[in-house]
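ARCHIVE CARD
Drawer: 12
Card no.: 0347
Subject: one protein chain, sequence and derived structure
Cross-reference: see card 0346
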Amino acid sequence: MNPVVVVHGGGASSISQDRKERVRRGIVQAATVGYNILKEGGSAVDAVEGAVVVLENDPEFNAGCGSVLNVNGEVEMDASIMDGKDLSTGAVSAVRCIANPIKLARLVMEKTPHCFLTDQGAAKFAAAMGIPEIPGEQLVTERSKKHLEKEKLEKDVKNSDCEKNLGTVGAVALDCKGNVAYATSTGGIINKMAGRVGDSPCVGSGGYADNLIGAISTTGHGESILKVNLARLTLFHTEQGKTLEEAADLSLGYMKSRLKGLGGVILVSKTGDWAVKWTSASMPWAAAKDGKLHSGIDVDETTTTNLP
């Protein structure tokens, strides 16, 4: 099986010109790291975790350092990961003061009998696992502070032009043994209530992975994604014989028509096909397969280069 990794940097309403190059670099680096893990014989789970860690560490993305702020000006993060081999999964929500929530989610999957830990329970588990606690301020960027101020000022104004980083970061992969996995991580939505949890840590909404079908990671308006179970809905359409593109169009179209919810998905099938689709204005993405790296941000814009 030829390995494949696809990553996304969140569905966005707009990405300013001066940020585009930094975002592009981040997304390409994440895909390259994930692909190299696969080429060296690493598992799909290793690859999606590795790719998402790159994006959590990059302040340009709404995950880890760079996460958007809640109503109290604090970072609360959600993440989940799933192994398509046996459907094992790990998730965390409302976590603070750790650099990489996706690593904690994987530990939940591998070191507990549970699927999902939240808030204080997740914090205690992180400490027990030796994950270092960092000051919350280290995760807060000037851009996030400005976005929160702007959102609070414009809360009552419709069509606010605040550059909402709608979403998340995520990755899907197929390894050389035919196993698939997904990982999704986020800081949530700007000015959210403390304790709000979106789709990203919820298996079936924020992502899904099953060797019998494929893997998916989603991004966009979390409440809408939760209501339609976007990840599982998309894979359901592929099970009914739709292509990956058709399945993505159907599920994203349903979410948009039913709820006016915008979002995006990245998919890899059990045979190694992949697809990226979104209804938001843009979605940074990159895919690596057969020594080629494909990437883009806006609709109908794809760059293809050879991987080193």
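Annotation on reverse: The longest helix spans residues 17-39. The chain is about 35% helix and 25% strand.
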